[in-house]
Amino acid sequence: MTVTARKSGTRAAARGTARAAGDEQLSRADRVARGKDARAAAPLESHAEFAPAGGRDPVGLLLGQAKTRVPELVPVRHGRMLVSPFTFYRGAALPMAADLATTPASGLRVQLCGDAHLSNFGAFASPERRLVFDVNDFDETLPGPFEWDVKRLAASLAVAGRDNGFPAKARRKIALAATESYRTAMRAFAQQPLLEVWYAHLDIEPALAQFRSQMDAKRFKLAEKMLAKAHTSDSMKAMGKLTAVVDGQRRIISDPPLIVPIEEIFADVQADTIYQLLHTVVGKYRRSLQSDRRHLLEQFAMTQVARKVVGVGSVGTRAWVVLMDAGDGVEPLFLQAKEAQPSVLAQYSGRSQYANQGERVVAGQHLMQAQSDIFLGWTRVPNPVDGLDRDFYVRQLRDWKFSAPIEAMIPTGMEIYARLCGWTLARAHARSGDRIALAAYLGGSAKFDQAIADFAETYADQNERDYAALQAAVKEGKAEATTEI
Predict the structure, then answer these.
(1) What pTM does this model have?
(2) DSSP letters of 238-304?
(3) Taking the domains of the chain in order of start, what are their residue ranges?
């Protein structure tokens, strides 16, 4: 896999790094020894193990999350999770975090994505206007054992493969491809200078070209077409899709409960108060940006704000679309302000050092991503309605964002995608963790790969049981689910 390096200036590493050896300045030999010693605590073969803990209650965990979410959106979340075992898996990061905490632990910590399923990887625009591939969801990011991310990725491939009707042999080949890609990439990063690792990133279009021989011409052309379309997915396109001109003003189109302007959620007086508050909040958010990006944002004025339902697991957390404009309705900028609650990993891996959960997300994203959105920042919002302060992180709503259509993949395509995800996750972990110790722990054999592939299928079985448990809870009236039209 060809990797290019940026020549632009460095970005200071985010606080909260999970790197264990960097501050100690251990020798390379000591770091290799540390990685090999970790096999005593968690032999490579042990990562195949998973046995449900006694008293395990995945539905109870999911219902517990509902307590901090918008009540009328919780049934929407459950409805999206019940579409398929894979959509359930996407929303079940908390039950899996509880399960991972019971598995053998290597003790080698990195900055985790915390929800590294295959749909949380994708392509987006870099500041240099290239289409790059990276991890793109950090709601649950927190330091923790590196293998938790690898296991969540591999299990997601097994679950998605089952949803797509792939046979067991093909699913195992896909899981092995992801884990082998992770392991061999980490071993390559261990031989590279730290700055070279830091600058490494994956340009998706050249990377796709390397796999051309493994794809039939029709599917390769389709992939090229989808990537070309991603270049048009920006604020201008969002403006055409999400807004309309009403009485001479551009307004966000209401589509309840998926997108609802503030004016429809609250009474006029409350809405006016909230807009006054939001102007203050945007000012505070600007201060979290570096100076040149702060200057750029100051050229835009807020036009309207709406609540938007996003994702699967995130449904019910407060997410706002902020329409801003720099030129009389013809120069739009769509920002998304998304509520950041404590990571699902916190009670199993340790609390964040950040008091503001939005800052936790932003710091983790800067640490794991090779290139992040230029408007990525964080803030805290006091709520005049319920009196509770809530933390948010902010980014562009769309900037060439592209997610692969998982449900349309054939085994060959998912295997290629799995390799991209494995390499990308290794690069993210190599930035925050001790890549030399990790490479020594993983080794040159396929023992780790085989163990993770075993785990993936075992956990896919558990996921199907948990999916059925949520179905039963809805049928029995213990949980409510809404089917979207």
Answers:
(1) 0.89
(2) HHHHHEEEETTEEEEPPBTTTEEEHHHHS-HHHHHHHHHHHHHHHHHHHTTS-HHHHHHHTT-EEEE
(3) 4-231+404-475, 235-396
